[in-house]
Automatic annotation (TrEMBL):
It comes from Streptomyces laculatispora. SUPFAM superfamilies: alpha/beta-Hydrolases. Its EC number is 2.3.1.122, 2.3.1.20. It is an enzyme of class 2 (transferase). This is Acyl-CoA:diacylglycerol acyltransferase. Belongs to the mycobacterial A85 antigen family. It holds the Pfam family Esterase. Keywords: Acyltransferase, Signal, Transferase. Residues 1-38 form the signal peptide. It comes from the Bacteria. InterPro entries: AB_hydrolase_fold (IPR029058), Esterase-like (IPR000801), Mycobacterial_A85_antigen (IPR050583), TAT_signal (IPR006311).
Amino acid sequence: MSSYRPTRRNVIKAAGGISAAMALGTGGTLAAASPASAAGDGFGLRIVEHNEGDPRMWYYRFATDAIGWNPGVNVLLPDDYHTGGRTYPVLYLFHGGGTDQDFITFDRAGIRDWTAGKPVIVVMPDGGHAGWYSNPVSSNTGPRNWETFHINQLLPWIDANFRTYAEYDGRAVAGFSMGGFGALKYAAKYYGHFASVSAHSGPASLRRDAGLVAHWANVSSAALDLGGGTVYGIPLWNEARVSADNPVERVESYRNKRVFLVAGTSPDPVNWFDTVNETQVLAGQREFRARLGDAGIPHEWYEEPGGHMIRDYMVRRDLDGIVARLRKA
């Protein structure tokens, strides 16, 4: 039993006694197979860099008006993608936050081995150091509209350029930490897009403990991505935006989906980052699970030893469940 523990190098302190740390991660590679992908034409995307030399992991950077710099995307293809004409389901896999986290985190962690032989395409996009898979309320560094990039641009581009099932039963979304929150958020807000959602050490409650996670999102995004701008607004939140993004307030949106949750039960007592992150994650996931249970919505959950980390054995279990839930290749 092994795990991948991203390093956490950023302590973010805000006035009023609020302290927050970011430790969230993922990665991947993208593939193109048509003149449209080669040109990067359509959906508001233009390819500015690419590498298709690896038979499984293909990489692209896009220019897009949604983001003020060129975000990267990795697409991990099935072993037999180039040898047959099958159509595949797709997993969108999201990284966490922090300056040491980016879209190749899951590649470093071992996603190639974990998906060997599995009939699924895995798309791993950039999400910013602290983008929170959101369009921020304010930014002082140019556009950082990650939600627009992922949902309105990248998702249709993938369906147009790969042999995918462009339908509800053809897509899953999952992530680690900040990416786990993003997965839960997108699965609820865009109900018809994803039939399976997974949060590996991902927060599921923005408002608990006086809104600690929402404050965390604001402070981290202000420090790392937005030059003092915020995801939800300071000093007052955009309450409608918080409610729209908050998994525990969107419970009915998880009905008829596969829901997979993992949290750690024993944060590192000498690692402040780990303790704050996973203690809040565990409490929020328990709140979310209780609401799912009250609503009679089935869900799969695990409380595992250790703290804020990617657990390879849990990712492998999750992948098996995703493949079982989605339309078969």
